[in-house]
């Protein structure tokens, strides 16, 4: 936050009704964002141009939107800035700084041009795709001084309308201080359910690399809704927070930061100092992530917080490695790994993106000034030894031919059968290259002859093993050629590609190139082309553990929902490869393995991958080595492996390491295994399967018995959210609101990864999707929106307009509750509902029945982790049952104070508002707490918070009454028919006399009993209900099912005007139908038009046909009645 300081300035911004707050404290300049005529925003935006701030100090810290320091700079007299920490007079530093300054200047010029291109004339912004129009809402804040952790003052009047800023203030700190999130605390306020095991979940630990995105928000929403529901049901519930150190991702980010700020590399700093820098960065980012989780309402037990690099967790990681190594499950071997030459490290499969190329394509590659060409198949010839014959091969990677040790053909390919068993001669080294036969060769690809490079291709490696071919490393860790005695030695791999092709041409061995559609492996962290390298690394044997994990799903011991992912589970685990866990990084769990050297023993007598021992400490490892080799400890020299473990290794231990494993702690015995795991489907193998394997191997049981997988969150157009598209939505922007100018500034000043061309595309995308920015929607609306999407099986296309709709829904709940509070008399004390039902009306009984069926739907939805079922039931109850019907019907009875009718309505209203708020609480925690605290309570109800209030049950609300439901539903059908008539005729509500004719005596009797609510909802002072008489002349008629007819009695003038309006609407609908019919009749319509458009057209066609038909029938009835 900004602290109170010595001086402040407000600086006007160009083209913006806002001010930058420039704030001085102890010689530092803090810059924040302030709307005119409003209180200072809690979210700040960094900016680099403060040369126009008169008297500003030389040193300034930029503050990002979450109020955290992002960079420091020295302000010069001309407004430029330079980074601290580098002595510009030191050797070489000045040149580097000038080059960097020039680079920044050029980038700034391009960005300024982009900004100018983005400026639009007032009123020129169109509505964004899928974004409904919105007007700026009044932001009301809670300004009563409340110390953190103290309860909010609920004695003051509620604001006129719903404001998320007001509602969400103070509650979270109070919940946390009261201990509502701790499983041990539930018994303080209510009796836990007897003989129930605790409900336990672990938050999938977000990476410490940055802030939470919408995928995290979806996970948080689903998990928090489940844990709050379980807590209210009476089950002791534990939700464990944590943060992942994210080794490779974090190291990359921090390296970029120190290079950007200080112009140095991690190698310049040294390992120890760099690790300290990462820890400082972690403390900043980790706190920011946890603050976001609090803003989302996540009811986590913060006293059990875990970080995967803390002391407790690190001990668990070392113990797991040592045990698995001692058991022979972890071993060291030379195998192919995914290698990033830019990161100089092995990377996991999840960090490899596959880029599809249609053919010849030029791509930027880190470390290369010019684009590199891919998607090309190069043909060249190998001369056959001792003859004039040759064999032509084709490859997409000509540079790897330097490591070829074989040429493979299919055994049934007659073109090459005479060459099988012979050898070719390598043109650059003279090495003999045998021609082998293997059925894996595709005879139709290229020439049908395949070069084999076992050290640089996974398929070639397998084939090389089958045929006992040598593996020659010809590319090193930095991506340079290792081919001593050749002209290519030391060249970069893609420079060598062209050099090899040229050398082949010089020797007359080059034949041709052709386009080749292919998939290119890209490192997601660096953008580099992944290089398979043969390296000595640590591996985990996965075959046996994988089979055990596979059987657990097949036997039903482990349940995965949705079941469609069973096939994915089998695909990954049926033939699972051993897992490389070595990473050539500094940030992470250093591998607790030690290379052994024994004084007096020839190193040649020890296998390279066998002279290793593991241990928690060097002393433990020395003792193991002494026993293993039968020598005294003083003769043993140990060197710890410099590498660190794959982040997924420590993550795989999360469900039990958080409880203090390997120690048998009370938490481990009480809360392991977890009840449920809820996470995204994209990490089913990388995290979920590995947790299952490690849990079964190290603890002897599954870490959880149910896995619920949700889908990916995409933008409104179905695109993956990407910074380069400008469609990444920050959850806090949706919660607090953000202007288009702020969104654009975030791209300009906070995203160094985008080049100016990408930046232009991103900014255009933002202007298109968010022309008015994003309105303040609040946490509850965002949570409800995410919970409403069908998250199991289909990706979620998040529409901010939909979130805004649910903000309006929050306002509806707010107004309904305010109405109820105003209706309760000052000394109102709710009575047990059973005591007032004797005087209840059918509508009272109907709303209680609707509450009971909503309770059923909510319990089923939560039990099945089907949150859309819950949100659908709650929305229907609040909007369509409570607000649209019941509140309208009881306004008159409530006005008759001190009557039995009034007391009955008030008690029923209290019952349904109280029940509906408690049903809603797991998904909308803040709004429901604010309103629940103000509801009158029954005697002896001392529940301090809705967090620990009982979740409604049918035992509490046994009001299922299908007969009453049927009676009222018929009445509502009549109301809808009347409203439909009024809509089609263009009449105001209640403008015409309403009548109903009914053939069925039972229905007739019920409608007469419901005359008052029927008249209220149709806004007709009197509704004529008769038993079969024909509607009077001049009436508009509409059938209601098979037993009733509703009509509006029109005056002659109204009848004529209504007929004219109907005819005009009929003509318009017929014109639309004709145009659509023409569009659907084009030649090859089924082939040319996308299937989704065809489906939409069919639906629209049927709707228009029904619309035209109804207009004709209504016109006919008007004409008949007028005769």
Structure summary:
The chain is α+β, with helices and mostly antiparallel strands. 41% of the residues lie in helices and 17% in strands. The protein is built from 33 helices and 39 strands.
Describe this protein's structure.
The chain has 1123 residues and is of the alpha+beta class. Among the domains are: 1-85, no CATH class; 170-307, Rossmann fold (3-Layer(aba) Sandwich), CATH 3.40.50; 376-516, Isoleucyl-tRNA Synthetase, domain 2 (Alpha-Beta Complex); 802-960, Orthogonal Bundle (Isoleucyl-tRNA Synthetase, Domain 1), CATH 1.10.730.10; 966-1122, no CATH class. 41% of the residues lie in helices and 17% in strands. It is built from 33 helices and 39 strands. The strands form 13 sheets. The chain has a six-stranded mixed beta sheet with strand order 1-2-3-4-5-6, with no helix packed on it. A four-stranded antiparallel beta sheet has the order 12-11-24-26. It has a four-stranded mixed beta sheet with strand order 19-20-18-21, covered by helices on one side. A hairpin with a 6-residue loop joins strand 19 and strand 20 (432-437). Helix 25 (867-895) packs antiparallel against helix 26 (900-920). The longest helix is centred in the last third of the chain and has 32 residues, at 1091-1122. The model is unreliable at 1-93 and 118-132 (pLDDT under 50). GO terms for molecular function: aminoacyl-tRNA deacylase activity; ATP binding; valine-tRNA ligase activity. Residues 844-992 form the Methionyl/Valyl/Leucyl/Isoleucyl-tRNA synthetase anticodon-binding domain. InterPro entries: aa-tRNA-synth_I_CS, aa-tRNA-synth_Ia, Anticodon_Ia_Val, M/V/L/I-tRNA-synth_anticd-bd, Rossmann-like_a/b/a_fold, tRNAsynth_Ia_anticodon-bd, Val/Leu/Ile-tRNA-synth_edit, Valyl-tRNA_ligase. It catalyses: tRNA(Val) + L-valine + ATP = L-valyl-tRNA(Val) + AMP + diphosphate. Residues 1050-1121 form a coiled coil.
């Amino acid at each position: 936050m900004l602290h109170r300081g010595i001086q402040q300035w407000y600086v006007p911004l160009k083209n913006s009704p806002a001010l930058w707050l420039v704030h001085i404290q102890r010689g530092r300049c803090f810059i924040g964002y302030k709307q005119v005529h409003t209180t200072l925003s809690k979210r700040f935006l960094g900016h680099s141009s403060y040369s126009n701030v008169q008297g500003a100090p030389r040193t300034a810290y930029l503050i990002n939107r979450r109020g955290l320091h992002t960079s420091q700079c020295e302000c010069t007299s001309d407004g430029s800035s330079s980074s601290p920490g580098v002595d510009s007079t030191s050797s070489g530093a000045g040149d580097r700084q000038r080059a960097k300054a020039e680079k920044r200047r050029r980038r700034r010029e391009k960005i300024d041009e982009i900004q100018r291109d983005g400026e639009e004339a007032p009123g020129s912004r169109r509505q964004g795709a899928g974004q409904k129009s919105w007007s700026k809402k009044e932001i009301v804040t809670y300004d009563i001084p409340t110390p953190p952790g103290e309860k909010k003052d609920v004695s003051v009047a509620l604001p006129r309308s719903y404001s998320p800023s007001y509602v969400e203030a103070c509650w979270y700190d109070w919940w946390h201080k009261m201990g509502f999130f701790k499983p041990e605390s539930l018994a303080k306020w209510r009796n836990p359910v007897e003989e129930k095991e605790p409900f336990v979940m672990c938050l999938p630990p977000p990476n410490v690399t940055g802030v939470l995105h919408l995928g995290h928000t979806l996970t948080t929403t689903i998990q928090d809704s489940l844990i709050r529901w379980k807590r209210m049901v009476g089950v002791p519930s534990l939700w464990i927070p944590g943060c992942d150190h994210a080794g490779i991702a974090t190291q990359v980010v921090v390296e970029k930061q120190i290079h950007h700020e200080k112009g140095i590399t991690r190698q310049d700093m040294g390992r120890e100092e760099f690790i300290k820098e990462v820890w400082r960065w972690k403390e900043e980012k980790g706190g920011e992530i946890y603050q976001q989780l609090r803003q989302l309402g996540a009811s986590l037990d913060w006293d059990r917080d875990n970080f995967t690099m803390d002391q407790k967790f690190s001990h668990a990681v070392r113990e797991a490695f040592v045990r698995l190594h001692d058991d022979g499950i972890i071993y060291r071997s030379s195998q192919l790994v995914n290698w990033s030459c830019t990161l100089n490290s092995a990377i996991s499969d999840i960090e490899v993106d596959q880029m599809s190329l249609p053919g010849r394509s030029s791509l930027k590659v880190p470390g290369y000034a010019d684009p590199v060409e891919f998607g090309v198949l190069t043909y060249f010839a190998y001369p056959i030894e001792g003859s004039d014959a040759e064999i032509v091969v084709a490859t997409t990677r000509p540079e790897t031919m330097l490591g070829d040790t074989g040429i493979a053909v299919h055994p049934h390919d007659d073109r090459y059968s005479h060459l099988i068993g012979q050898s070719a001669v390598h043109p650059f080294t003279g090495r003999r290259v045998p021609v082998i036969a293997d059925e894996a060769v595709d005879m139709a690809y290229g020439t049908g002859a395949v070069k084999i490079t076992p050290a640089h291709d996974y398929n070639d490696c397998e084939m090389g093993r089958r045929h006992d071919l040598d593996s020659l490393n010809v590319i090193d860790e930095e991506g340079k050629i290792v081919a001593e005695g050749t002209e290519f030695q030391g060249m970069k791999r893609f420079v060598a590609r062209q050099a090899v092709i040229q050398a082949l041409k010089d020797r007359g061995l080059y034949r041709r190139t052709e386009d080749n559609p292919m998939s290119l492996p890209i490192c997601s962290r660096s953008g580099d082309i992944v290089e398979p390298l043969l390296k000595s690394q640590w591996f985990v044997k996965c075959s046996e553990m994988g089979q055990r994990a596979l059987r657990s799903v097949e036997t039903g011991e482990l349940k995965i929902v949705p079941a469609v992912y069973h096939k994915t589970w089998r695909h990954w685990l049926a033939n699972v490869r051993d897992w490389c866990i070595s990473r050539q990084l500094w940030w992470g769990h250093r591998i607790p393995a030690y290379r052994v050297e024994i004084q007096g023993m020839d190193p040649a007598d020890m296998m390279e991958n066998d002279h290793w021992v593991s241990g928690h400490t060097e002393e433990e490892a020395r003792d193991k080595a002494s026993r293993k080799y039968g020598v005294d400890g003083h003769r043993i020299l140990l060197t710890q492996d410099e590498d660190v473990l794959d982040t997924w290794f420590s993550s795989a231990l999360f469900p039990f390491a958080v409880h203090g494993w390997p120690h048998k702690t009370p938490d481990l015995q009480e809360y392991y295994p977890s009840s449920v795991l809820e996470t995204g489907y994209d990490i089913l193998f990388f995290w979920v399967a590995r947790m299952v394997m490690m849990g079964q191997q190290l603890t002897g049981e599954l870490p959880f018995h149910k896995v619920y997988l949700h889908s990916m969150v995409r933008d409104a157009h179905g695109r993956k959210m990407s910074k380069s598209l400008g469609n990444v939505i920050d959850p806090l922007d949706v919660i607090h609101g953000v202007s288009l100018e702020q969104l654009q500034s975030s791209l300009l000043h906070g995203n160094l990864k985008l080049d100016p061309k990408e930046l232009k595309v991103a900014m255009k995308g933002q202007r298109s999707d968010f022309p008015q920015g994003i309105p303040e929607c609040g946490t509850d609306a965002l949570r409800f929106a995410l919970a409403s999407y069908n998250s199991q099986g289909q990706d979620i296309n998040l529409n901010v307009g939909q979130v805004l709709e649910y903000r309006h829904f929050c306002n509806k709940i707010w107004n309904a509750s305010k109405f109820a509070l105003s209706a309760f008399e000052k000394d109102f004390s709710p009575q047990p509902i059973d005591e007032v039902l004797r005087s209840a009306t059918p509508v009272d009984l109907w709303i209680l029945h609707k509450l009971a069926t909503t309770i059923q739907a909510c319990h089923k939805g939560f039990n099945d982790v089907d949150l859309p079922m819950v949100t659908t039931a709650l929305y229907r109850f609040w909007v369509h049952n409570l607000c649209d019907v019941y509140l309208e019907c009881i306004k008159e009875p409530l006005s008759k104070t001190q009557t039995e009718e009034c007391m009955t309505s008030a008690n029923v209203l209290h019952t349904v508002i109280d029940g509906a708020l408690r049903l809603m609480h797991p998904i909308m925690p803040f709004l429901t707490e604010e309103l629940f605290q103000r509801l009158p309570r029954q005697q002896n109800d001392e529940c301090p918070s809705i967090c620990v209030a009982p979740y409604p049950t049918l035992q509490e609300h046994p009001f299922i009454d299908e007969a009453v439901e049927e009676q009222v539903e018929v009445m509502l059908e009549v109301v809808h028919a009347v409203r439909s008539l009024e809509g089609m005729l263009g009449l105001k509500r209640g403008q015409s006399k309403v009548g109903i004719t009914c053939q069925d005596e039972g229905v007739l009797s019920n409608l007469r009993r419901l005359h008052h609510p029927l008249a209220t909802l149709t806004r007709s002072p009197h509704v004529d209900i008769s038993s079969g008489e024909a509607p009077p002349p001049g009436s508009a008629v509409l059938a209601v099912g098979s037993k009733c007819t509703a009509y509006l009695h029109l005056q002659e003038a109204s009848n004529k005007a209504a007929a004219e309006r109907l005819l005009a609407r009929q003509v318009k609908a017929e014109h639309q139908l004709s145009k659509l019919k023409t569009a659907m009749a084009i030649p090859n319509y089924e082939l040319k038009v996308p299937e989704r458009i065809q489906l939409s057209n069919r639906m629209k066609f049927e709707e228009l046909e029904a619309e035209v038909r109804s207009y004709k029938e209504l016109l006919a009835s008007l004409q008949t009645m007028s005769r």
